[in-house]
C-alpha cells in the first residue's frame, strides 16, 4: 500500500507498444544490434542446457521474495524526473518485462554468448523501448530511496514507440549496475552469473541496491504494480533471480 504520509504518485501515459511475443521480440532486438549470426548447426546443441547468463541474452528478472518481474512500459513518472517508470509486475507473461544484458556504458559489448562474471558491470536494456535501467539522485515516488527509471538521452517523441530500432541514443553511467552474486565473494570474477541463482544489482556510481517490496504498491494507471527503487542497504528485498528469457551460449553462435 502507499505509505500513509504520502499521496499516490501521478503518472503520464505514453502510446501503447506492439504486443509482440517474447521470443520474436528478443530475436529482433539481438539480431538488429549484432553482426553475429546464429549457427546453422545449432540444432546439434539445442538439448544442451545453458546454465549461465550471457551478454545479449533477453531475460526477465524475478524478485526473490515477491516473484514480481522487473518491468517497464511507456508510462512516465508524473513527478520527480518524469522519466520512463520502472516497476515490479506480478505477471510473468508480459513482454514489457524483458531486458537485454549489455556491457557497461562506454564499454564494448562482448560477443554473443559470452558469460557474465560476478562483479562485472552491465546495463539492462528494456527491449520494447531500448532504454536502460537507471537510477539517480531523485527521490522515489514513495519513501526516501532513489527513483529507478528507464533512461536514454533520447531522440524522438519519448513516448516509447521508437523501440529497438536505433533511434534512441545511449544513456550515461547512471545505467551501470554491478552483478553481485549471492553468497560469499559475490564479486569474485572467477564465478559466473548462473541462471536461477540469486543476484543483487549494485549501482556502480552510487553503491545503491536495486530493490522492490510489497510495502510500496501503486494505484492507477499501474494498479497492483510495486515500486522499484535504489536503496542504501543491501538486504533480502534486493535479491533477484533470472526467470523466462532467450539465452545464448557460445555453442549456439558463430564467432
Briefly say what this structure is.
The protein has 255 residues and is mainly beta. The protein is built from one helix and 13 strands; from the N terminus they run E-H-E-E-E-E-E-E-E-E-E-E-E-E. Strands 1, 3, 4, 7, 8, 11 and 12 form a seven-stranded antiparallel β-sheet that branches. It has a six-stranded antiparallel β-sheet with strand order 10-9-6-5-2-13.
Which descriptor suits the 3D outline? Answer: globular
- Gyration radius from CA atoms, angstroms: 17 Å
Low-confidence spans = 1-45, 156-167
| Element pattern in H and E | EHEEEEEEEEEEEE
Key features of this structure:
disordered N terminus, globular, 6-stranded antiparallel β-sheet, 32% strand, mainly beta, 255 residues
Describe the 3D structure.
The protein has 255 residues and is mainly β. Helices cover 5% and strands 32% of the residues. Strands 1, 3, 4, 7, 8, 11 and 12 form a 7-stranded antiparallel sheet that branches. The protein is built from 1 helix and 13 strands.
SSE inventory with pairings:
Layout: E1 11-13, H1 22-33, E2 58-63, E3 69-77, E4 84-89, E5 99-103, E6 121-126, E7 132-139, E8 146-151, E9 177-181, E10 199-203, E11 209-217, E12 226-231, E13 240-246
Amino acid at each position: 500500500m502507499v505509505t500513509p504520509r504520502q499521496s499516490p504518485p501521478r503518472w503520464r501515459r505514453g502510446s501503447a507498444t506492439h504486443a509482440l511475443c517474447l521470443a520474436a521480440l528478443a530475436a529482433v532486438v539481438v539480431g538488429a544490434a549484432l553482426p553475429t549470426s546464429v549457427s546453422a548447426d545449432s540444432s546439434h546443441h539445442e538439448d544442451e542446457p545453458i546454465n549461465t547468463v550471457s551478454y545479449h541474452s533477453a531475460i526477465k528478472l524475478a524478485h526473490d521474495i515477491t516473484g514480481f518481474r522487473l518491468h517497464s512500459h511507456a508510462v512516465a513518472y508524473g513527478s520527480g524526473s518524469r522519466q520512463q517508470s520502472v516497476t515490479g509486475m506480478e505477471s510473468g507473461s508480459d513482454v514489457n518485462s524483458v531486458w537485454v544484458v549489455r556491457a557497461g556504458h562506454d564499454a564494448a559489448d562482448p560477443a554473443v554468448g559470452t558469460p557474465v562474471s560476478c562483479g562485472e558491470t552491465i546495463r539492462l536494456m528494456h527491449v520494447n523501448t531500448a532504454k536502460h535501467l537507471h537510477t539517480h539522485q531523485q527521490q522515489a515516488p514513495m519513501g526516501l530511496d532513489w527513483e529507478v527509471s528507464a533512461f536514454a538521452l533520447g531522440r524522438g517523441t519519448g513516448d516509447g514507440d521508437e523501440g529497438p530500432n536505433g533511434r534512441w541514443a545511449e544513456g550515461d553511467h547512471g545505467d551501470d549496475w554491478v552483478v553481485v552474486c549471492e553468497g560469499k565473494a559475490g564479486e569474485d570474477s572467477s564465478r559466473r552469473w548462473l541462471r536461477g541463482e540469486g543476484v543483487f544489482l549494485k549501482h556502480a556510481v552510487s553503491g545503491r541496491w536495486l530493490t522492490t517490496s510489497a510495502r510500496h504498491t501503486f494505484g492507477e494507471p499501474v494498479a497492483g504494480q510495486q515500486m522499484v527503487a535504489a536503496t542504501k542497504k543491501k538486504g533480502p528485498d534486493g535479491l533477484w533471480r533470472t526467470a523466462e528469457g532467450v539465452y545464448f551460449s557460445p555453442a549456439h553462435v558463430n564467432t
